Amino acid sequence: MKNKIRFLFLNMVNPKRNTEKLYPPLGPAYLVSYINKYFPESKNIEFKMISNNFEENINHYNPNIIGITCVSQNYDYAKKIAKYAKEKKIQVLIGGSHISLCPYSFDKSMDVGIIGEGEETFLELMKIYLKNNKFLKLNKIKGIIFFEGNKLIITKKRELIKNIDTIPIPDRTLFKIDTHEAYMFSSRGCPYKCVFCSSSRLWEMVRFHSAKYVFNEIKELTYKYNINRIAFWDDLFIANKKRVKELVKLLEKEGLTRKIEFHVGARANLVDEDICKLLKRMNVKSTNMGLESGSPKILKYLKGDSVSVDDNFNAIELLKKYNIRNCFATFIIGTHIDTKETILETLNFIKKSKLDSFTVFILTPLPGTPVWDYAQKENFISKDLTKFDWETLGEGFEVGQPKIHLAKNLNKKELYNLYIKFMIEKKKREFYMIFRTAIFNPKKAFLYIKNKLFN
Ligand code: B12
Ligand code: SF4
To answer: Where would a tag sit more exposed on the chain, N or C end, judged by fewer CB atoms within 10 A?
Structure first.
């Protein structure tokens, strides 16, 4: 029998950050389930995914092809590994958010970059590889980037898959599930366009899986993997209220609202009594909202006119009224128009709110966003991306000093001092949350503390 093709997916994490290894990405798992459904000959390919010891694993597994999935922050690591693999004559593919949002940073150490939605492109590429033992006639494949000699070729745009229910449930056998918690998606994209968010530029528009599809995936997670807590990592789970309603009905009928706890992402302007009732019925125990700022001026800059500070405040009140146990939010400080006063407005907002915990980020320019364009225009980021140190995008006060400092009205020290005030408030809230959790579920509280201490 012919030897199988060995395909190794690399989840390109930052080796210095243990937390990144904790959540294997679902992107490659969708690619595998898709190719297995629509290309029977894919049985001749053996897929595997790793998140660490890349060089050792490449040597040990000796793949024919590696497929890197990577965010911008980790792109320098991806280039290093690609070079290593190339020296061993291994074919190198790269997909994911970075190369999709910033295709012109494509590096010569790689053979093909896959731009945007990967399923169809991956299928076509693998058909070619299986037939010819290499990647040929790349010009004909939509949605890729590659070098022809010294010339960088970017092919025609790949259309998005219209009905995303035609993509099968991701193949989670690609990684080990050793907890009772899982994450999943019920949609791709978001209807909004916040200035800092690259996700909405990555997916361009929003498409939803049907309630039935989502229900089937939840059933698979419950019965096959023994999961009892599911987090929806959609950009905006509640964007389609009618679908949430249908899903809740299906879950109730199956008795799953008593078995599974859910976590979902919400947007304050969409949180009303109806959606809270549905989330309550669904057994949603925690929510996260990108509230971003307590200053009307900054909020308008970040999110436009779609949401106000009052909407943000009322959304928390409503979720708490419906007894959503843990209400989380994220905030951004350090925009070019922030002042000490606007940042303190955000801190005061948090202090007045019933949030259980929150995260505060320093604004980072991500490729594809208006913030990125601003940062390039102001020379915070060089136009020549071959020399850019991508890791600087991942540097915040939590891991040292952010290198890109957009806030014109504050120096780094002043921004840091403000950041510390947020951290003090966060610790207070988390202490209370852990204390409350420990009363009902001591094991969970212990695991939470362990994760905080060791990751
Ligand atoms: C869930 C999620 C997380 C989770 C899980 C991460 C993980 N390992 O999957 C957590 C919370 C841990 C996380 C962490 C981080 N994340 Co995150 N995350 C997301 C989110 C919401 C969904 C990602 C996802 O799985 N999408 C669904 C799948 C189907 O899409 P996909 O991964 O893009 O894959 C498709 C294609 O890209 C392509 N593809 C992908 N890989 C490959 C590989 C090959 C070989 C091929 C052929 C194709 C291909 O095919 C797939 C199917 O169509 C996205 C936003 C979004 N909506 O996409 C942000 C996003 C990817 N994250 C982002 C960032 C910045 C981070 C962090 C750096 C945050 C931080 N400061 O720590 C870390 C980095 C972690 C890491 N090493 O990946 C940014 C990346 C921006 C950029 N320019 O790269 C995004 C876009 C959000 C944003 N801020 O706008 N994240
Ligand atoms: S609502 Fe969230 S996912 Fe949508 S554009 Fe804004 S930040 Fe991005």
So the answer is: N
236 with 297, same domain: the answer is yes
| Domain count for the chain | 2
> By residue range, what is the domain housing residue 369?
177-454
Q: Say if residue 142 is in the same domain as residue 203.
A: no
Phi–psi pair at 70, nearest 5 degrees: -155, 140
User: In CATH, what number is assigned to the domain containing residue 412?
Assistant: 3.80.30.20
Task: Give the residues across from 266 on adjacent strands.
Answer: 289
Is the domain of 148 the same as that of 213? no
Q: Whose CA is nearest to atom 6 of ligand 2?
A: 194
Which pLDDT score, from 0 to 100, does residue 453 have? 58
Q: Which two tokens stand for residue 417?
A: 């001092």
Q: State in Å: Cα 4 to ligand 1 middle.
A: 29
Pocket of ligand 2 (CB under 6 A): 190, 192-194, 197, 199-200, 235-236, 267, 290
Predicted pLDDT at 378 = 94
Question: Collapsing DSSP states into helix, strand and coil, what is residue 48?
Answer: strand
Q: What is the pLDDT of residue 452?
A: 64
Which pLDDT belongs to residue 211? Answer: 98
Is the same domain home to 260 and 333?
yes
Residue with CA closest to ligand 1 atom 27: 27
31 close to ligand 1 (CB < 6 Angstrom): yes
Low-confidence residues of the chain: pLDDT under 70: 1-2, 399, 450-455
Q: Read out DSSP for 259-313?
A: H-EEEEEE-GGG--HHHHHHHHHHTEEEEEEEEE-SSHHHHHHHHTTS--HHHHH
Give the nearest ligand 2 atom to 196 CA.
7
Cα–Cα dist 13/53, whole Å: 10
| Coil vs helix vs strand at 402 | coil
Verdict on whether the full-model pTM lies above 0.85: yes
